[in-house]
Amino acid sequence: MASRAFLIAIFIVVAIAPTLATDYMVGDDKGWNLSGNYTEWATGKDFRVGDTLMFMYTQGLHNVWKVNQTDFQQCVISNASEVPHVTGSDKISLTNPGMKWYICGVPEHCSKGMKLAINVSDPKPATSAAVEVSPLRSCVWMLAVMAAYKMIMA
């Protein structure tokens, strides 16, 4: 009986986990800085509504501005109503589909490559099995299954 409950719990986790959003650390372990190639970094990634971009950098040395395509191409910030991200560990939720453009607003940083353009798609349907799931969320799900199993066994 207990092994059957465990198998059901595993099935639920496997069915639900792929629908979770993905957290992307921009530049992976290198973060957001002048040494990154963010066009290369974004290549092959499947950005979806609900995902999160995490810009990690030394506070005070860089920043993150969401800009339009023209500003991205010209490395300028023309929309003064936008507020820059400046914490050094900025999390930006992708809330709607379409192209998104980000630059570092520190003079000459954008022109030296600190710029990111991505295309955000609609969320994955719940039936999709091929998805990148963050290790943290996978760990949380596995701990939940283990806790549920322990409760069933008690």
Estimate the mean pLDDT confidence: 83
Q: Which percent range describes the beta-strand content?
A: 15-25%
- Secondary-structure-derived class: alpha+beta
Task: Please state how the strands of the largest beta sheet are arranged side by side.
Answer: 1-2-4
Structure overview:
The longest helix is centred in the C-terminal third of the chain and has 19 residues, at 135-153. Helix content is 29%, strand content 18%. The protein has helices at residues 2-16, 38-42, 69-74, 135-153, and strands spanning 23-25, 52-56, 65-67, 89-93, 98-103, 115-120. The protein has a three-stranded mixed beta sheet, with no helix packed on it. A three-stranded antiparallel beta sheet has the order 3-5-6. Helix 2 links the parallel strand 1 (23-25) and strand 2. By secondary structure, the chain is α+β, with helices and mostly antiparallel strands. It contains four helices and six strands; from the N terminus they run αβαββαβββα. It is found in: Membrane. GO terms for molecular function: electron transfer activity; metal ion binding. It holds the Pfam family Cu_bind_like.
Descriptive labels:
disulfide bond; single chain; three-stranded antiparallel β-sheet; Cupredoxin; electron transfer activity; Immunoglobulin-like; 18% strand; metal-binding
Q: Can you give me a brief rundown of this structure?
A:
GO terms for molecular function: electron transfer activity; metal ion binding. The protein has 154 residues and is α+β, with helices and mostly antiparallel strands. It has helices spanning 2-16, 38-42, 69-74, 135-153; strands at 23-25, 52-56, 65-67, 89-93, 98-103, 115-120.
